[in-house]
Write a structure and sequence with these properties.
Strand content: 5-15%
Number of strands: 11
Helix content: 40-55%
Family: Belongs to the group II decarboxylase family.
Protein name: Aspartate aminotransferase family protein
Shape: globular
CATH architecture of one domain: 3-Layer(aba) Sandwich
CATH topology of one domain: Aspartate Aminotransferase, domain 2
Mean pLDDT: 96
GO molecular function: transaminase activity
Cofactor: pyridoxal 5'-phosphate
Keywords: Aminotransferase, Decarboxylase, Lyase, Pyridoxal phosphate, Transferase
């Protein structure tokens, strides 16, 4: 197959992509085809001679309007999913065209340098030490794994055990302390790292989902030996922040490693609003951080960021070497030293593009606008009889309950999803069903928020009439 005659095919794909993007505002936000319908449209025996390239692209594009979810549109509030800034999407297209394996410098000096600069900008933006190790990973799951791998190495190194050489068999026991509200990715990372979940001691959280520092201090007083504490910046339900300054004090007194899951909350550090920035006070004292760029920075999936204060512990936990590799001995950056992946996509390039295009002011505006949209939606919903906002709206998350029974809330969620004006999901908060609204898309306007509130209120009024 020649590399040359691809212009027409790429032009065709570009036209399909633009049609998809231009249709996001008008289409139903949810998917409209079932699994069986999509299988009927797409499944066929794998042919012997193959099929026409353009026909394959046309077929895939034809199913997008009914088989995709408009999660990069302005009225998608499910989970914590960002959109895609035009500049980051364009940069990601370049990444696909370049097709660089970003594992080591010698394969792609350009990508190595771009990611080095993007890492420096992120540390500066977040107000973190400039000599931290930084790795671009698939998402916060792997960012948490990377930070906790460095923590595992660091706390065992302090007691004379090299876990990278000797493994965990016979190693001193590691205590892991986490909030009762910690995200599931912490548990999954501990499983991947061979620590398991039975090592986790859970610390009580307050009514907003914040770890209680008094309970943490009491817990730490009962533990001896290597200890890792996992806090969070941005509760996945409420957006609340653990009191990081007090937690850092407790960890320092105990000699514990402090890791923070800041999947979306770390971006509060970029806000122009002093009240929002203050939520993360003390975060600069942490030992490792995990965050996402495909959430609030609005770069394409997939892109998370792992940051570790100790470059030595970070590198020791991650690096790979082999006789056939050409790895740098100088200042050049080999990404394989900082992430679990070997072969990997150049996912730091869209981060560079977004940061450079937005600048400090643009990033601050992005954070603050979406926080304002969350408050707008919460305030409007709270005015409707029978609707309750279950937690303080401190960032971009809103928790809503309808009526007195769990069933009413679940029926409202289902009705909103079926309506198609917007999409959001449900959760359980302190034993009660709740609607969770996550405002993470750069394009969400005040009008989008108002339209979505109207759709939610319509659904609630319909449900409430049928339950009387």
């Amino acid at each position: 197959m020649s590399l040359q005659p691809c212009d027409a095919l790429l032009t065709r794909a570009h036209a399909h992509a633009l049609e998809h993007l231009h249709g996001l505002d008008a289409r139903d936000v949810g998917a409209r085809a079932t699994r069986d319908e999509l299988l009927a449209a797409l499944r066929a025996p794998l042919s012997q001679p193959g099929e026409d390239d353009a026909a394959v692209i046309d077929l895939l594009a034809s199913q997008a309007p009914r088989g995709t979810v408009a999660c990069n549109g302005p009225r998608y509030f499910g989970f914590v999913v960002g959109g895609t800034l035009p500049v980051s999407l364009a940069a990601d297209w370049l990444v696909s065209a370049w097709d660089q394996n970003a594992g080591i410098y010698v394969i792609s000096p350009l990508v190595s340098v771009v990611e080095e600069i993007a890492a420096d900008w992120l540390l500066d933006l977040f107000g973190l030490p400039p000599d931290c190790g930084v790795g671009f990973v698939t998402g916060c799951q792997m960012a948490n794994l990377t930070g906790l791998a460095a923590a595992r190495h660091g706390v065992l190194r302090r007691v004379g055990w090299d876990v990278e050489v000797d493994g965990l068999q016979g190693a001193p026991r590691i205590h892991v302390v986490a909030s009762a509200e910690s995200h599931i990715t912490i548990d999954v990372a501990l499983r991947y790292l061979g620590l398991g979940t039975s090592c986790v001691r859970r610390v009580e959280a307050d009514a907003q989902g914040r770890m209680r520092p008094d309970a943490l201090r009491a817990m730490l007083a009962t533990l001896e030996g290597p200890t890792i504490v996992c806090a969070q910046a941005g509760n996945v339900n409420t957006g609340s922040f653990d009191p990081l300054g007090e937690i850092a004090d407790a960890c320092q007194a105990h000699g514990a490693w402090l890791h923070v899951d800041g999947a979306f909350g770390l971006w509060a550090r970029a806000s122009a609003d002093a009240r929002i920035r203050a939520l993360a006070d003390g975060i600069e004292r942490v030992d490792s951080w995990a965050t996402d760029a495909h959430k609030w920075l609005n770069v394409p999936y997939d892109c998370g960021v792992a940051i570790v204060r100790s470059r030595e512990d970070h590198r020791a936990a991650m690096t790979s070497t082999a006789a056939y590799l050409v790895q740098t001995k100088g200042a050049e950056r080999d990404a394989v030293d900082w992430v679990p992946d070997f072969s990997r996509r150049a996912r730091g390039v869209p981060v560079y593009a977004a940061l450079r295009a937005l600048g400090r002011d643009g990033i601050a505006d992005l954070v603050d606008r979406l926080c304002a949209r969350a408050r707008q939606m919460a305030d409007a919903l709270a005015r409707e009889p029978g609707v309750a906002i279950l937690a303080d709206v401190v960032l971009n998350q809103v928790l809503v309950r309808f009526g007195d029974e769990d069933d009413a809330t679940r029926r409202v969620i289902a009705a909103v999803q079926a309506d198609g004006t917007c999409w959001l999901g449900g959760t359980t908060w302190q034993g009660r069903a709740a609607m969770r609204i996550s405002v993470s898309n750069y394009g969400t306007s005040a009008e989008d928020a108002a339209r979505s509130v109207d759709a939610i209120v319509r659904a609630w009024r319909q449900v409430s009439r049928t339950t009387r």
